[in-house]
Amino acid sequence: MESIDLLVLRTARDWLAAGERVLLVTVARTWGSSPRPVGSMMALRNDGRVAGSVSGGCIEDDLIHRHTTAHGGDGLPEALPALVQYGISADEAHRFGLPCGGTLELVLEFMPSLSSLERLLARLDAGSLARRILDLNSGQVTVEGASTPERFLFNGRRMVNTLGPGYRMLLIGAGALAEYVATMALFNGFKVTICDPRAQYLDAWSVEGVERARGMPDDVVRAFSPDLRTCIIALSHDPRLDDLALLEALQSPAFYIGAIGSRRNSQSRRERLIEHFGETEASLRRLRGPIGIYIGSKTPPEIAVSVMAEVLAAKNDVSLPDELSVSQAKHARDPLRFTPALSRRERGPFGVNG
């Protein structure tokens, strides 16, 4: 499934190419609570069709009404970009369904340049980062390359939105849990790759839209060239596969690196990587395990919800409280059940994520 940003840009491009009149709307600033983050976009066609969103629906309805009934029903005049705010007063916030105290400032681009959208999409489709710069004084749009992801910027007259490439997920181990995680990742706009050198697992894979990699996981991780929009999750329960992939992943800037396993299994993995591969507590600081947030998950689909929630929190730069950690939550509920000092022989088989 394509990311919402790409869907909006691609739809606006197609509408413009077909001769339709289009309004491109971007969330530029927010105060208080807001339904959508800055940089979120929607495209509005002169007949009321919409792609994307900037709120929960009420603001979209108002924009549709304003810009399809303006100018005698012709709507969407060719004009310089404009700013509009919603939710300034409590009454207006209530009217538009905004949270208490929430205010949105939107940038409206009337008939955005088709050629600039084509240049932008060409870069994104090639897997490159692209910076879209809008000068509100002139309406001029500049598209240029970017080396690293950047935060959305807006100073009142200049808007800079760094886009693409899309977020990617590499899963190690093509088991049942991986199928649920992959399905959820696809719905959240991730491009997903599954790696498993075991033919009996990979040949049974049933989730459409996922790329398959049959090589050894460490080789696949290297070839994957993880970047700041990549997450890597080891789900095979086989240290011969998971450990090598994780070691390679830790050399990358991936925003999320984790492995399934019980608290004992996770502790055992850390000891293995330190004892046999020269890692340190400092170098393993980015390695998550047990992965997920604590929701009492037991089944593969429940565990997938837990894992995907933690991935999305990391993606959105949200720090989760310690109480949501699987390790912390389970220790609080049963502090005597897990003792890291147990020998490997006493630790038993691999667990799930507790």
Class per helix and strand makeup: alpha/beta
DSSP helix count? 12
Helix and strand pattern: HEEEHEHEHEEEEEHEHEHEHEHEHHH
Low-confidence stretches: 341-353
Q: How far do the termini sit from each other?
A: 31 Å
- Based on Cα principal axes, name the global outline: elongated
**Percent helix range:** 25-40%
| CATH class group of the largest domain | Alpha Beta
Strand order of the largest sheet: 12-11-10-13-14-15
How many separate domains make up the residues?
2
Instruction: Give the CATH superfamily of the largest domain.
Output: NAD(P)-binding Rossmann-like Domain
What's the alpha carbon Rg, rounded to whole Å?
Answer: 24 Å
Question: Could you report the average pLDDT, rounded to the nearest whole number?
Answer: 87
Pfam family, one: XdhC_CoxI
Organism: Pseudomonas delhiensis
Protein name: Xanthine dehydrogenase accessory factor
Domain XdhC Rossmann: 169-311
What does this structure look like?
The two termini are 31 Å apart. The protein contains twelve helices and 15 strands. With 354 residues, the chain is of the alpha/beta class. Strand 10, helix 5 (176-187) and strand 11 (191-195) form a beta-alpha-beta unit. The protein folds into two domains: 4-163, no CATH class; 168-347, Rossmann fold (3-Layer(aba) Sandwich), CATH 3.40.50. The strands form three sheets. Strands 12-11-10-13-14-15 form a six-stranded parallel β-sheet, with helices on both faces. A five-stranded antiparallel β-sheet has the order 3-2-1-5-4. The chain has a four-stranded antiparallel β-sheet with strand order 7-6-9-8, with helices on one face. InterPro entries: MoCofactor_Util/Proc (IPR052698), NAD(P)-bd_dom_sf (IPR036291), XdhC_CoxI (IPR003777), XdhC_Rossmann_dom (IPR027051). Residues 15-66 form the XdhC- CoxI domain. Residues 169-311 form the XdhC Rossmann domain. This is Xanthine dehydrogenase accessory factor.
